[in-house]
Amino acid sequence: MQKYVLYAVMITSFIGSMVGSGINVALPSIGRDFDAMTGDLSWVAAAYLFGSAIFNLPLGKAADILGRKRLYKIGIVMFSITLLIAGFAPSIDFLMDIRFIQGGLMAMVFGPGMAVLASVFDKKERGRILGYQTASVYVGLTCGPALGGLICEYLGWRWFFLITGAVAASGLIFMLRVKEEWYGDRGAPFDYKGSFCYMITIPMILYGFSKITDTLGIYLFIAGLVALGVFIYVERQTKHPILDVNLFIGNRVFTCSNLAAMLHYAATFAISFLVSMYLQVICGLSATVAGGVILLQFFMMATLSPKAGALSDRIDPGVVASVGMAINSVGLFALSWLHRDSSLVLVGLILMVIGIGFALFSSPNNNAILGACQPKYYGTASSLLATMRLIGQAFSMAIVTIIMDVNAVQSVTGADNEALLEAIQMIFRIFSFICVFGIMASLARKKKEGQTSI
């Protein structure tokens, strides 16, 4: 049974990540077919992330109530169907809508999937297993652009959705062999009020921060923070909330691990984008060369994540994750000193170091989060972790946008190379500084004597 669960979760983790990253190379073809504007194309990519972020916690709680395996299987079926439907999209608006739905359905798969993994495997090997799941995510992120590009070039962008939909459905074959079911809060009433507050809060915070340089963005972000306060208040008054606030109160490991996850993704998500800009625009290298260099980071992440997860089964996960965060801080600071004539070998080595740091942080930190709560909270904890990841990613790209605006970078065709290089250097220094706060959060999670998981 254990191996079937692992195979199913690895397949869906791979496809979910590939669908998120691979769509970027398909956008030009989609734009030509539908004669779409650049803004519409950006929403084709962003709608998937927004859908996932908005539905993560509500569906994580639904899995605890209705059964994690049951919701996971429903999610696989519906996610696969929407991928196949996307392959026959008649318009750009339809594609944006179906991408949003895909993101929401992926939330039905990712959180419950990790919760099932944590439920079916003994805690002594949980870190190693989560390492395989994390590696699957990284392989999907790595292969997405490459495989997506090949599919789009030789078959067309519609086949990207048709093929990924078929592969995603194969995960159901393995999960159908699993007979056992896992619950966290079986039969409890669903928290509709809290879900509504959460689904209003998240988009306002994410979109508001992404437009923080505009007046509207500031108002939306502030409104999102106010809505967050209302959400917390509502959850504290609810007997069966989608997010039990008591998970954070008195549980330093759970609180600091989630904070560290958000800070880590805020500091690292935009690395590939910035390095690609540096190599192609500043150094004048081809997209193929730039992609090959960036793959070094993902290769280290995918290769070492299972080993780092296994290490966190023997050593305090917080210690392993803190070391990983520290390595990333050093690597990001090193990237901030790149100049026009920096060695390509040096760039590759720094990215490999960051890949090592990423592997040492991610699966051990996931292990620490699930180890800090009781099994009944696995669904909620897994979904909350996914939310922290998406918030961190949104903040990462928002920081890039803000610094580019401050440095008056108007063009990436070579006309503003000096301003672009200064902006890239500044962003990497900011990211390195964010990692310092991440290290502090990671180290602060050490359990007090006698503290138990909530």
Which features would summarize this protein structure in a list?
454 residues; mainly alpha; Growth Hormone, Chain: A; 3 domains; 15 helices; globular; disordered C terminus
Lay out the secondary structure:
Layout: H1 2-34, H2 38-66, H3 68-86, H4 92-120, H5 126-154, H6 157-175, H7 192-210, H8 215-237, H9 252-268, H10 271-282, H11 287-314, H12 317-335, H13 344-371, H14 378-406, H15 417-443
Short summary of the structure?
This protein has 454 residues and is mainly alpha-helical. It has helices at residues 2-34, 38-66, 68-86, 92-120, 126-154, 157-175, 192-210, 215-237, 252-268, 271-282, 287-314, 317-335, 344-371, 378-406, 417-443.
What does this structure look like?
This protein is mainly α and 454 residues long. It contains 15 helices and no strands. The radius of gyration is 21 Å and the shape is globular. Helix content is 79%, strand content 0%. It has 3 domains: 1-179, Up-down Bundle (Growth Hormone, Chain: A), CATH 1.20.1250; 191-239; 244-446, Up-down Bundle (Growth Hormone, Chain: A), CATH 1.20.1250.20.
